[in-house]
Design a protein that fits this description.
The protein is mainly beta. The chain folds into three domains: about 30-220, Sandwich (Jelly Rolls); about 260-340, Sandwich (Immunoglobulin-like); about 345-535, Galactose-binding domain-like (Jelly Rolls, Sandwich), CATH 2.60.120. About 5% of the residues lie in helices and about 50% in strands. The protein is built from one helix and 38 strands.
Length: about 525
Amino acid sequence: MGKRRPVIAVLALALLVAALAAPGTQLATAPVERLTNGSFEEGFSAASLGSVGIGWQPFFSGGGAQFGFYQDGWVPVVQEGASSQLITISTIGQTGEGAPHCAGIYQTVAVVPGATYELSLHGMLRALDDDPDRETYGYRVQYGVDQTGGTSWESVSDWADIPWDRVFPRLAPGEFQSHSASIVTSGEKLTLFFRVLYKWGTSNREVDLNLDAVSLKGAMPVGAGGSGKPYTVVTGSGPATVVLPPGSGAADPVVHLKPPLFPVASWQHKVSVYSESQVGIVRLELYDDGALLDRKSYAVGPLQLSAEVDWRPSHSGQHSLRAVAYDALGAEAEQQVSVAVGRPWQFLQNGSFEDAFVSSGPGVVGSGWSAFHSEGQSQYGFYDETWLPAVFDGRHSQLIEINTMNTAAADADRVAGIYQTVTGLTPGASYRLTLRGLLRVRADDSDREGYNYRVQWGYTLDGSTDWRLVTNWAEVPWDRVYTRLDPGAMSEHTAAFEAPGSQITLFVRAWKKWATAQRELDVNLDGLRLEGFHE
């Protein structure tokens, strides 16, 4: 083996020389862009109090002010491309207490210790037309550096003032101003903070800062690992190929994926993917059985990149989910997970009420169901409804009646409903309950308005069929109450829950809240379904 080492070294050197001879090729130590999405053209993501460019994070102080972060596409406040980052501080309708107020964005990048990096940025300040603080240096833009890669703006002790003294009227912006500075690093990570500062605690003020074309150029960190691969970076003149000599690459990236628990075929789920690298993730992909589900890519990758990917498995059975992350040095990492996808199963018996009706309590209920009701001064009825305006589909629905027409007085909180015990659930899996129904009362019932009649559902998990032991009643948002002889379309409601065990008893009930006599509440239920994971 010792005799072959010189040959290997010569080959490596030859590859390096050949790569350097290619047009647009440079050494890994040449200045390259280190910021992700400094142009704000690679998208925005939701964040606290608005949205920030992907790769950036927001921060703001407290006190008597409001803060906002926005994607700004108004051409007069964009330096290049189609978007800039807008940051606002407003004391309109606020006390202004707690000054000075600040808001900004930050980003952590990998750097070479002891190297010099060139920072450049463009921005514009705007305020209300009649704001006297426009001329008193009340609004400033500053940048700060954390040489350890920390993410707390409050830990920055030395904020540098950017000499942008001109503050334009909000609706009459002028030209963007620019600024540049050199930064000498002391560690392997560096966090850049940019902020707009409102010095005074005056109310009824608003300052807007637009940032665009933010850049930090310098050496690419190469660590001590090594891939020997060429890779693409962004330089001052655009994309270029950088050759990384063998043996000088950073450690490989890492990637993790988290599939949903008990996914169901044809249902939409979320797959969480996370990756990180010492030099930045430039591409992140997720595959299902070899088919690409999603890809995120950036000219300059962030040190951490995560994604919530929509996944709708087309069939039940085993699926292979594979996540792949690529870093800025050409290295890659992947994780593959085998996931069992269940069949979509309907667990309720006779939720359509088309099979048959059987005697239960004071009336009849769909087979597979049983009736329940409270006591007190009310009458209850359960019926096979065949009047088509009160049927969702087929020829039958379940009618539940609470009636105080023949009572001189009544009791409050009268309920009546149906229940069914369901088996075969998978503990921890998510299930969907779908209900269709409508509420009807007499035309002269003054309680039609005001949420006096409701429908609720709940369950017990110990096999109990006593409705009084249900502690998790959930209200169905059916607010419209029709007149008895003039019903409208049936309403639909879907609720999701996690199965606490393999068996539950499901209860659905009508609820008459008040102790009012001479009332009749009719609730029709139809098209009930409980669907979810089944092996």
